[in-house]
Design a protein that fits this description.
Elements lengths: L2 E2 L7 E8 L8 E2 L3 E8 L2 E5 L2 E4 L5 E4 L5 E5 L5 E8 L1 H9 L15 E3 L5 H13 L8 H20 L4 E2 L4 E2 L1 H12 L7 H8 L3 H12 L3 H18 L4 H7 L5 H12 L18
Parallel strand pairs: 1-3
Antiparallel strand pairs: 2-9, 4-7, 4-9, 5-6, 5-8, 6-12, 7-10, 10-11
Length: 281
């Protein structure tokens, strides 16, 4: 059962994890963006039903609301650096003339592979890894400073096409068609029956296939994506009633209950969730 994890109450939170995992990591999602720098291990990463085989120093970009999970193939060391990134962090950088949003938008693949042209990015990655090996006392600021440099250099590499995109190793075309259709029609009525007819399959088979490939139900996926859209519209300053209907909810009470369940606040309060333990992902 997929669930929302890793609540964030600050602009940026960094984790360094190196362990041997025997238990599977379930599908899950966040209401903030996430960057994972894969350092070593035998890992395939699933993002919304598409699988990617990772190589050391690959950069995994997961946008808010995307279902994802790592699949660890054996008990070798799985080492990675994870960054939880709030929208306010990206906004503050944009206001200072650095647009980091290009990292999360319009990319050919969510897995970036560092090439020779990305020498500065690779150097920042190595220094960030080294920073986590230093004594913890007074080291948090250094880690965050190097990570900001890493993000600035990465955004420049993306803008100038000096980055490789990892191709998929496996995907289900029916599910990808369904996901693309849902994301293109979030503001309009969506039903499992209509979606199944669009795919020329039965509703029961669609629900079974979608759950097995993405880790969540069709209804849960649609609600999550609509809430992501609603938050974006709210950040643009639109009235809550407009946000409700423009993000595809039938009425305000349905929108209110979904928002309250997802963010643990009312729509008027915005998004102020509580921080819990980091996810071992």
């Amino acid at each position: 059962m997929s669930k929302k994890t890793g609540y964030l109450h600050q602009q940026l939170k960094l984790f360094y994890l190196s362990d041997q995992r025997n238990l599977p990591c379930p599908y899950h999602y966040h209401d903030f963006d996430k960057i994972t720098i894969f350092l070593q291990g035998n890992v395939t990463y699933d993002i919304e039903g598409i699988s990617y085989v990772l190589q050391p120093y690959d950069i995994v970009v997961v946008s808010a609301g995307q279902m994802h999970r790592p699949i660890i193939s054996d008990s070798v060391i799985y080492e990675r650096i994870i960054a939880y990134i709030a929208p306010s962090f990206v906004d503050s950088c944009r206001q200072r003339g650095c647009d980091l949003s290009v990292i999360f938008q319009h990319m050919a693949s969510p897995i970036l592979r560092q090439s020779q042209e990305m020498g500065n990015v690779f150097g920042a990655t190595c220094r960030l890894r080294q920073a986590f090996s230093q004594p913890k006392e007074n080291n948090e600021l250094l880690q965050e400073t190097i990570f900001l440099e890493f993000m600035i250099l990465l955004s420049q590499a993306v803008q100038h096409c000096h980055v490789g995109f990892v191709k998929t190793s496996r995907q289900n075309e029916k599910i990808q068609t369904a996901i693309n259709y849902i994301n293109a029609h979030l503001s309009t009525p969506l039903s499992i029956q209509a979606l199944a007819e669009h795919l020329y399959i039965s509703p029961d088979y669609l629900m079974h296939l979608f759950k097995s490939e993405t880790g969540c139900s069709v209804a849960q996926y649609i609600t999550t994506k609509r809430l992501m859209l609603a938050r974006s519209l709210m950040e643009q300053g639109k009235p809550l009633t407009t946000v409700c209907y423009d993000s595809g909810f039938k009425n305000y009470s349905t929108f209110y209950r979904a928002w309250k369940h997802f963010y643990h606040t009312s729509p008027k309060q915005g998004t102020t969730p509580i921080m819990d333990d980091p996810v071992r992902e």
